[in-house]
Design brief:
about 425 residues, alpha/beta, Aspartate Aminotransferase, domain 1, Aspartate Aminotransferase, domain 2, 8-stranded mixed β-sheet, about 40% helix, globular, disordered C terminus
């Protein structure tokens, strides 16, 4: 007798830690050194949590031994509430805020609280794949709308409109975007809000990278642009404060929350079932949001993240046949391969062979539910010297993978 997994998992995946990642672990087990450009995990690359956050967590450890309130400790939720006021989000109270074990847990909880079997949720393509998986696990249907590479990866409003049906319950925004690094224009967000208002849909706005911005680009919080649409906003410590392992995130409900009492009851049930979020981390949230914002130094023109972004973007776009929209935010490049020039079947073939031949680990673009199979994601967290080495290895790999000129002409006909 075989014991099989749930049928709900059959069509789902999480490519960031999928088969290519498993292959990398096999290679490491044989003693091979892998350059890991696959996951936005700041700590292994020397990005430490600010000392004051760690200090306050340590001071409060004895107060963190028991379960907390299922929605989160008062000081953490109060700090998030003050943050919404700074952002211009109106009317948020303590009771509209949920603290979670990272944004990932809160996304899954939200979908479980909102989605009925057969409900459709519009999700960007490319997306952070947890969204697609969480919707499907809740019994819903993720429907992907186009983000246009030729328009700096902004959402295609016409495509969103064309994909709305009687079953569409909400729209997901990921801004700043993972994997593209796009920071959405204000009028784009406003147009999506108008659609949601007209169709009486919920907006789910993933804003975990809201402080990771380059070249003076501005992030526009979705909830600050509307009082009339029910909006779920997600933020946390993982990226802005380099505390990915602490698992500290928050969910904010805004807009006509009084019309969503049933959803709030569902969220309260789900939050109660997991008892509470990580309590030591909750004691760091007030310090993080109220203290010195060290991310500003890292994304300044001479900051480490900006310098690393510029370096790897230059090296990748210097490869003939590879293009890339320069990211305005977040921690990733999402380059495009001209498959007519190279001996690759698709993005997965490229990623596997790059790993096997050059020991560089990236994630194929199709892992982010992007359909053209010609993109890949690079994380630019590693220090300059490691990025230079990775860039050279990737460039060499492309040089070795060029199709013969005669074949290129044949393919182009």
């Amino acid at each position: 007798m075989q014991y099989n997994k749930s049928n709900r998992l059959d069509q789902l995946s999480y490519a960031i830690r999928g088969p290519i990642f498993d292959k990398a672990q096999q290679l490491e087990a044989t003693g091979q050194k892998i350059i890991q450009l696959n996951i936005g995990n700041p700590a292994p690359f020397g990005f430490d949590v600010p000392d004051e956050i760690v200090h306050d967590m340590i001071l409060n450890l004895r107060n963190a031994q028991g379960y907390s309130h299922h929605m989160g400790i008062f000081s953490a939720r109060k700090a998030v509430m003050h943050y919404t006021q700074q952002q211009g989000i109106k009317g948020v109270t303590i009771d509209d805020i949920y603290i979670g074990n990272g944004v990932s847990e809160l996304i899954i909880m939200s979908m479980q609280a909102v989605v009925n079997d057969g409900d459709e949720i519009l999700v960007p393509s490319p997306d952070y794949p947890l969204w697609t998986t969480a919707i499907a696990l809740a019994g819903g249907k993720p429907v992907h709308y186009i983000c246009d590479e030729d328009s700096d990866w902004n959402p295609d409003i016409q495509d969103i409109t064309s994909k709305i049906t009687s079953k569409t319950k909400g729209i997901v925004l990921i801004n700043p975007n993972n994997p593209t690094g796009a920071v959405y224009e204000k009028d784009i967000i406003t147009d999506i809000i108008k659609i949601a208002q007209e169709k009486k849909m919920i907006l789910f706005s993933d804003e975990i990278y809201d402080k990771v911005l380059y070249d003076n680009h501005k992030h526009h919080p979705t909830a600050a642009l509307s009082d009339d649409v029910l909006i779920f906003t997600y933020g946390g410590l993982s990226k802005n404060y380099r505390a990915a392992g602490f698992r500290g995130g928050w969910l904010i409900l805004s807009g006509p929350v009084h019309k969503a009492k049933s959803i709030a009851e569902g969220l309260n049930l789900l939050a109660s079932m997991r008892l509470c979020a990580n309590v030591p981390t909750q004691f760091g949230i007030q310090t993080a949001l109220g203290g010195y914002q060290s991310i500003d130094d890292l994304v300044s023109p001479d900051g480490r993240l900006t310098q690393q972004r510029d370096l790897i973007h230059y090296m990748i776009t210097d490869i003939p046949g590879v293009t890339c929209v320069k990211p305005k935010g977040a921690l990733y490049l999402f380059p495009k391969i001209d498959l007519k020039k190279f001996n690759f079947i698709d993005d997965e073939d490229f990623a596997y062979r790059l790993l096997e031949e050059k020991h560089v680990l990236i994630v194929p673009g199709s892992g982010f539910n992007h359909q053209d199979k010609s993109h890949f994601r690079i994380v630019f967290l590693p220090p300059t010297e490691e990025l230079k080495k990775a860039g050279k290895l990737i460039s060499q790999f492309f040089d070795l993978s060029l199709l013969p000129q005669k074949t290129v002409k044949t393919v182009n006909k």
